[in-house]
């Protein structure tokens, strides 16, 4: 565990950072930064992508209640179209980190895959970080549950699109729905399947 090595060096507040929502055609990209206490344990957390939704919701509540601090960053579809999804993901991460820094004196950041060159505190970018760092895994759960809940809200307003099933990802049924019913607010116009619908309506 990356955290254990950092604790040995006397580093106290370590923020794990992850984002979710690069692939969907609609909605925000969402990032979370989470700082856990040294003795934090949650069996099964380390591969958050394999968790069932029910388990993720349970873990989300447990993490929120037991972490030292957490922050959530969101970047809108309009901004994703302007600056591209890679930069938008990075911006969402920076927003989440800043929210944590307003609560505690963050000493170090562990990030899933993406380097953060603008960060003025030490950080390490870890490939498949949510399987190697408990803090990143916790951040991944917070980000995923936050974004999924946004999709459920959207599904209540626009059930014909099936957001509760595909969470905005470009499944066959989702693409069929946008071709049939057109676009609602919040679609990422720079994304291929959405762009095709926009171009077809011109």
Structure notes:
- The chain is an alpha/beta fold and 202 residues long.
- It has a single domain, classed as 2-Layer Sandwich (Nucleotidyltransferase, domain 5).
- Helices cover 48% and strands 15% of the residues.
- It has helices at residues 2-8, 53-66, 77-83, 85-101, 129-132, 134-157, 163-166, 172-181, 192-200, and strands spanning 14-20, 29-35, 69-75, 108-112, 123-126.
- A five-stranded mixed sheet has the order 3-2-1-4-5.
- Strand 1 and strand 2 form a beta hairpin.
- The radius of gyration is 18 Å and the shape is elongated.
- The chain starts with a helix and ends with a helix.
Provide tags for this entry:
single chain, about 200 residues, alpha/beta, Nucleotidyltransferase, domain 5, five-stranded mixed β-sheet, about 50% helix
């Amino acid at each position: 565990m990356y955290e254990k090595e950092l604790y040995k060096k006397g580093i106290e507040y370590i923020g794990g950072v992850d984002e979710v929502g690069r692939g969907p055609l609609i909605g925000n990209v969402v990032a979370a930064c989470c700082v856990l206490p040294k003795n934090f344990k949650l069996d099964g957390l380390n591969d958050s992508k394999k968790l069932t939704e029910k388990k993720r919701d349970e873990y989300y509540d447990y993490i929120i209640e037991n972490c030292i601090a957490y922050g959530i960053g969101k970047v809108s579809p309009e901004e994703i179209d302007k600056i591209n999804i890679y930069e938008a993901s990075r911006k969402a991460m920076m927003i989440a980190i800043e929210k944590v820094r307003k609560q505690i004196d963050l000493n170090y950041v562990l990030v899933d895959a993406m380097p953060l060159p603008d960060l003025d505190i030490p950080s390490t970018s870890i490939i498949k970080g949510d399987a190697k760092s408990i803090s990143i895994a916790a951040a991944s759960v917070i980000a995923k549950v936050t974004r999924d809940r946004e999709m459920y809200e959207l599904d209540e307003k626009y059930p014909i699109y099936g957001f509760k099933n595909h969470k905005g990802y470009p499944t066959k049924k989702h693409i069929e729905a946008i071709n049939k019913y057109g676009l609602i607010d919040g679609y990422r116009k720079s994304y291929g399947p959405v762009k095709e619908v926009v171009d077809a309506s011109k």
